[in-house]
């Protein structure tokens, strides 16, 4: 299975940067870095590349997409490249290097791109010439599409691979008359246009040799337009399906020019003999005025579907041209002199039964402006006709017989009569077109119907001299298309249904009779008519189905509330460019008509210069889009003037609001709150804003797109999920932003695109976009900012390299502004090695790595072996300093109270009862230490607890059912017993707030030894005064005084230390050896020792153990003690045992290190006695005394000791 190493981005970036910083590093350093990389990487199965491949560096100067393994695209178009970029991977299938500044492409530039199928080099040097090696493409055996347009090539490159099928050679200087095509026999599409014409002159006519294209027996598409050709090339391959010969100098088409082209479907030979009057380009008429065509020129084109003969100055149409064109669907005859053919016999129309589109536009007769014209009756034979263009025929009136031949065309859906200068038309005539969807009457001189005497022309000739082609007809002044392009027909209008286009006429007012019989019209365009009527709700009463109404570029007076009320189905209303009355002083500006339009979705009020309104609030429940650009909201929204604050508030269903170009310098705070709540897109671009209230985004619960471009905003606050959770795109381009706060984008998961182009940013902190990888933005635009290529940008450049955010045009338009020697250089190419001290960086790396490893090791050891390390530390200190008692300083508090702070009832009882009774009431106040009051914040609990117990005379445990189960209780009990061990001071006082530990051996023992130190909360209120008095007494009196007499007497007998001299004389040879079974006896008075342990009389009741889950105490944990060193002990006091151990250890009679004994504070006291029994040898008697334990009982005790439990039976 193919695998790959997958590393984190930070790891790869660090290793790449480090290796780059040490180009001469030794082999061991490189090996170390690679090892580090391997440790931070995982080997995973190879996965298909994503659309943004992770294996491409951000420094690579092209956009790379790889949505699957079979298609890898490198798009280097317009990246200001001066050479082919290094690093294009061998799996590339498409490469686009067009529109750059590449002057030369060497032989080895594409040597490794063996999988390339598409290579586009169009305008690789901005039309200045490109040098290409002859064998450049030789090894590209999979190349299918090669684009070489606009490179001033003088010949077709040689040694092209045989796999090339599409070859683009437009806009070069190839000499077509001398070219050879033997090297490209498999080409199917060949584009050779514009190699010699007006804008790429060669100053000669071109004639292609016969048979030049004969070798291309697979050729299907051939484009030879704009080449100054004087003849149709001979010997064209019969495989052609599309042939383009337009805009040449062909003056005659002979009978055999198209012989054999039986598969040809599209033939374009327009513009060879252009009609030069009013032509928007350099025009030279043909010698014979019009293009000559042999009657049988098209006989072989039996499968032709599209024929373009426009712009050839044709004066007649020979019917024989069309006799064999039975499959012709589109015929373009515009810009000729065919007015007589259109209105005369029109015999050619008999042979076009399948024609669907016919363009006869601009065939007007020179210096004629007829009253009317009548189409030839042969138009009735076009039974399949769908679209008919009759634009630019120039006549005055549409009479009853003008369009009569079209009435029977059931498929006719679009009729264009625009730009005919028609003065009068009987619109009822159009009722006879049952399936007509679009009637285009724009750019005429139609008057309203009530005008009975429209102005008449005296001679009819003076009107024609001003005739010119409409600007929107010609999309490109250089390359005239000879086709009609109606940009005034908006797509939404076209999609709404039947259309009536009456724009740019003389309809200076609207009358209901104007639309009589057009009740099915869905889209009405009345723009550019200049009418200034005040609409009263009756003008469109005959159009009940109208859904789209365009009234732009007029002078509408919105004075009445009931305007448009007759249009209940209206969805789109365009009132833009009606600023005349909005600029008039003192005129009513009423927008209450919105209430009358229940279905209105889109309203365009742009370019009206609205600075005052009679309507203070707009009301609509259906409006979803409002265009309010190029007005004066800056005047309406004045500071401290709330008149228009709620202007848009009641547009409850509004989702898109555009208030661009409204001279807004500031948006009042209250306006933010009254914006419509359902907005998804808000556009406030091209204003004068210097600030934006970012926290106001919380009012927009559904906002997705916010456009603030082209303002003067200088500061941007942080945007996080608490402000907006729906924003996906924020456009801040063309502002004056010079700084972004850290964490600018902190949380909204929806945020995907941020546009910061053309601001004043000179650097960006890497913390600005610190987000989780799944939440981060996907696209960031930074073009046009004056970035500084200095060492201060080091972190920013590293962030760009490590980030997964896509930065479009990173290597082309994200450039340096300073310093001067780096100006216009890509920011990503800044050499950051000059900002890094190689030796120092390596030492810092080694130091920080060592510190991290050491810190992790110490932390791990401390966590796993804390008690062992503590023991070793204390043991070593004891070895050096010896044993000494810990004398605590004077107590700061009389009483430390420990209780369950998590229980609010207990806390309340302590603060309101215990604190008051002991610290505030009574003759002598008792200072208390309380966790909730006196503990130092921020100090560990262990330290606070230790100091509280150490510096308090006594410790009061307020016991409840929940408290005795907590770790704090156990820890406090451990520490209190530790003080007993260290200082021989008993500080424990137990207050039973609830009946707990009823079966605890420790509690039972405590009651027997020092019963007064255990107090219980009374069950009756009458006993509370006695309880408080008793508690005060217990707190003030030392616990040693309160012990029972029996224990006090025994303790006094054991208080003296053993006789050191007697023990020194003890014979150590009598001690038991581990290797033998010899029994050693304890030293007695008879054998020279002092009796320390007695089995006789005067022994005390056994000291009971404390259960582990109830409390804790110090113990000794020993390993390596012989298992047969067992015995029974009766001990007169715990303190004596401790002294005994210290004494024996100092005399080295019993080497504790041999048995590896260590002090632990987590375990229990019973193990101490268990160890003593193992360490102190004795001579076993034949008959056990009454206090000895039988073997069976001893086994039971051992088991209980193991469970940290020792009861009376074990003594």
TrEMBL record:
Subcellular location, principal: cytoplasm
Topology of the protein relative to the lipid bilayer: Single-pass type I membrane protein
SMART domains: LRR_SD22, LRR_TYP, TIR
TIR domain boundaries: 891-1035
PROSITE patterns the UniProt entry points to: LRR, THYMOSIN_B4, TIR
One annotated GO biological process: defense response to virus
TM stretches of this protein: 842-867
SUPFAM superfamilies: L domain-like (SSF52058), Toll/Interleukin receptor TIR domain (SSF52200)
UniProt GO cellular component terms: cytoskeleton; endosome; plasma membrane
Signal peptide: 1-43
Function per UniProt: Plays an important role in the organization of the cytoskeleton. Binds to and sequesters actin monomers (G actin) and therefore inhibits actin polymerization.
Record-stated family: Belongs to the thymosin beta family. Belongs to the Toll-like receptor family.
Protein's UniProt name: TIR domain-containing protein
